[in-house]
């Protein structure tokens, strides 16, 4: 096993340092929708797999190019009493929110795609607002805004999203300043297509302006209030940013995060628990005349050669199969050293990193996704998670904490870490814990108080019934976050259990439900899947359901007793129920 880790370190070194020389760009992601005549269509997310691993099948899909065509599509669904959902051309959401219809039967469900609803981006320089069709991609929007000498202040770190899709799930970057890091808090107007009476043509467009209370429901609406046709966002005069990363020890970051977020407009922290390392991002707005034309080409969103992605996945699987915690630690260590060397993908001059600070235009520093773009010449490179290539496949847990509870959560995770630090290497092979900041919001499904968002990614097996190395650790951290410290799940990420009881965590939840009743009384924009998320319903507890987070185990059969995983209590958070590997129990179980 020791050898394994060493070998993997070597392999990774070779792959990472070698591939850094390859020019970026690659094969664009596959379309999320595949249709086959009368057999209907299948919707997938960008990872190619939903939480429940079941296909989302629909009867048909419409591709409106204008707001009026979108209205007609909604009208037709309403008239035919069909279930309907909108999906973007990207489908980057992990929960099955965009799937219409009922479980096991979607025969009367249809989709409306915004993939072609993207021709208008109108900038009002005097008012400093931009109004865009909902299918417009974030990158296109930002480029247009910057060309007009303005900047969009908040955006997620990943640019491969649509304007309508990203606000719908509360997507965010990081900031406690001004209006804050969540994009929906910069929304000042929105047009929504909702079902209507026959006399009104079965569907109508409503325009919500800044003062309209319905806007607080519609800003973050998970696609269930209606079809968003246009989004109006506030802008600021163009600016640049200056970023420096400080890779330092993690001894006190839980006591320093508040100061850090208050001091730097776009601050974040990445915590690598197994490496005892915290990376502070000092990230501030600077005037346009500051010299520097850098970009933030985040490493995780750069193209990988398909071969590299496959080898990394194969290596990770080998470590899983041989239960090599050590090998994971060796990998985590190599990955972190590499990130430090290349500053996570910051580039001073568009090409390489030459030193801090890296200064560049807001439009080039806030968000990235170079793996999305393809010159026709390269078909051997993609985003690392492209489902066509057997590349990376992982879970993404994202917990949103009231700022006041965050330090205590981190202290408890540190206690768990001290029991066996190597058990934490699995997340550090990805991005550790990414810690970001968002401000209190008026959106009913947004955050009622200033909050801290934590993201962590970890291995997901190809087969749903395959347990994973240290899965008990991640289950304990997950349950601690959501059930002990009151964290809320990001609507676009997470495994199903994270949503249990979620409605009780939102003080304005009932106002959202009331808006839903007003705008879509027949529930045509709701489905079994979106209801399960919104109302945090627990699914039927089948064998192995805890392995993929479809349930919290309460008996061994929810884990995988035949593979040595039994339902046990948490090591630090005793109320947690996790699937823990305990090979000596196998003989006992099967002899009783
Ligand atoms: C690699 C990657 C990185 C990410 N990084 C971040 C990040 O940094 N910060 C963050 O907060 N999130 C991040 N996310 C999550 C992402 O922001 C959300 O998943 C987002 O909602 C996806 O937008 P989309 O355009 O792909 O929408 P989809 O996934 O297609 O749709 C999202 C939801 O919105 C609904 N919807 C879409 N368009 C409309 C419309 N016009 N009208 C009504 N409903 C609509 C859908 O029904 C669905 O419920 C990331 C995701 C990935 C895959
Ligand atoms: C399309 O559907 C038909 C009929 O159900 C089926 O026979 C055929 O294999 C399908 N084709 C593809 C490419 O899925
Ligand atoms: C890095 O962060 C640590 C912890 O906040 C701090 O003590 C140190 O001075 C910082 N280093 C630099 C170069 O800013
Ligand atoms: C930028 O412009 C401001 C005034 O507009 C000026 O005071 C400042 O010195 C300039 N800075 C640089 C680096 O040129
Ligand atoms: C997953 O593994 C189980 C046995 O462990 C097997 O029965 C099942 O067919 C596999 N599923 C897939 C999709 O490969």
Please outline the helices and strands.
Blueprint: H1 2-19, E1 33-35, E2 41-43, E3 56-58, E4 60-62, H2 67-79, E5 83-87, E6 109-113, E7 121-124, E8 129-133, H3 138-147, E9 150-151, H4 163-168, E10 187-195, E11 203-209, H5 213-218, E12 227-234, E13 236-237, E14 240-249, H6 253-263, E15 268-272, E16 277-286, E17 295-296, E18 304-305, H7 306-321, H8 325-341, E19 346-347, E20 358-361, H9 362-365, E21 381-382, E22 394-402, H10 403-419, H11 425-428, E23 433-438, E24 451-459, H12 471-484, E25 488-489, H13 509-519, H14 528-534, E26 565-569, E27 577-581, H15 584-591
Parallel strand pairs: 4-6, 5-6
Antiparallel strand pairs: 1-2, 2-3, 7-8, 8-12, 9-13, 10-11, 10-12, 14-16, 14-20, 15-16, 15-23, 17-19, 18-21, 22-24, 22-25, 23-24, 26-27
The protein binds flavin-adenine dinucleotide and 2-acetamido-2-deoxy-beta-D-glucopyranose (4 copies).
Family: Belongs to the oxygen-dependent FAD-linked oxidoreductase family.
Cofactor: FAD
EC number: 1.1.3.8
